[in-house]
Specification:
- By secondary structure, this protein is of the alpha+beta class.
- It contains four helices and eight strands.
- It starts with 8 loop residues before the first helix and ends in a 10-residue tail after the last strand.
- The structure holds a DNA duplex.
Length: 201
Amino acid sequence: MAEAARLGRDFFAHPTLEVARALLGQRLVRLRDEYRLSGLISETEAYIGEEDQACHARAGRTPRTQIMYASPGHAYVYFTYGIHWCLNFVTEREGFPAAVLIRGIAPVEGVEVMRARRGRPDSILANGPAKLTQALDIDGRLNGLDICDPQALLFVEAAPSAPDEAVRRSPRVGMGDTPEPWRSIAWNFRWKYPQEIFPGG
DNA sequence: AGGACGATTAACT
DNA sequence: GTTAATCGTCCTG
């Protein structure tokens, strides 16, 4: 089976809500020396501009948010709660801070390695933003990576998009004291894929 | 310089 | 449902 095409910059150079929706079903791939880890993206969330009071860029350009102002197709990997790493892909255009948070994947390749890394049941191997980064060995070393670079060891491969009837939209998770309308706006996208194919989604 | 809190998770009761 | 873990980031003074 030939390697599928990596998604290029054009895929990410669109309105963030469109990119977040289009990513459902695409294959997130992490290459290591000896093996390949991958999964189909099952949940995403959009963070759009300095006005979005849930977006890290609400504070403007800072050392942390600088990468969100880069050209689309860059990885924004941030550290939170003193423990966890979360993965985003920069969208839209250079100079405008926006990104899609990857919140879940359905493991496909390297499941044994993910099991070993996570030490948890398969049903909850990678169904959370900080779970998938642990399963795929993604951390701050990958912050700022251009995932459209053909040499990159983290990228997204083209795959059939999730069908419309299986996509659900809801408010973003973990909004805490975020003011309205940002707290309740439905910028979370989830693929309700068949349980019999990928338990735990 | 100090403190509150976080785009979370897992282990409790 | 509640809470600890654990520290970078950002805001206040």
